[in-house]
Amino acid sequence: MASKQTSFPRGILLAVVCAFVLFLILQFVRTPLRNPPVTAEIQAPPEIRQILRNSCYNCHSNETKLAWFDQVVPANWLVSRDVKEARRHLNFSEIGSKPAGQQKAALFEAVYMIQMGAMPLPSYARVHPDAVVTPRQLAVLRTYLDAAESPTPATQTEIAAADMQYQNWIHSASAAAPQVRPAPNGISFPTDYKNWRVISSSERFDNHTMREILGNEVAIKAIADHNINPWPDGTTFAKIAWFQQPDSSGVIHTGQFFQVEFMIKDSQKYASTKGWGWARWRGTDLKPYGANANFSSECVTCHSPLRKNDYVFTMPIERQPGH
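Above: the chain's sequence. Below: its structure in token form.
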């Protein structure tokens, strides 16, 4: 009796052929990704630029060099989208036209992202392992930023004036706060934020500022309940920044007030900005930051790599209920 020969199902074979033909056709439907001229590369020593060139330039510059597998559709669509978004946020080929302070601030943000493991994007690093910043390279970047010119030691008169301003800030009545103009996106100045509790602190060694992060009652309860990822609606953070003011012996004092900024969680109201409302006021006159409502896109872009932490940079010092 002859054995029955098993044949490959024609329907499956046809589907495979059609899929392959479609794949070939899609290779002609690419998203154009052009490299504009390099107009003002970041001003930094060669060793710093080399680290950035190796790990960051493929997305954050006008010198993108795509690997062969990045040019295959549909990967090409995803890579092109990510590069265009990365350039809008930070472009090392154009940032050199900005003041040195802004360049260092942008580099500080990049270093902070690297330290937190948010950059390079994990999905990118998995297929581009050469882009990962090594601990030694990270130390080189930090040393460069730490070497920024230190503030001139303050006189006793300047320290006393800053201390008086700080005391006035602590004891100032919130009754005057309603006179503060809303942020360009319509968020009103939270008048009671000075009564919130401290949940953490941070510093910016690139611009010599110290920051204290406060949380409202909803945030404090969420911390006590270990319910911080995602944070519940109603959570509000205030980050207050002062310039550092060293004295002649190197002791750091609280200097001039710089700014206060807020993150307000409302997953529905602020759905278009990752579930958070953003606002910032600068100077002792509390001038709203931003030319128009679109200013919050800066905040969203900056915090987007922290999506796994519900877009929050600073993790709180855990507190027990009642403490």
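Confidence is low (pLDDT under 50) at residues 319-323.
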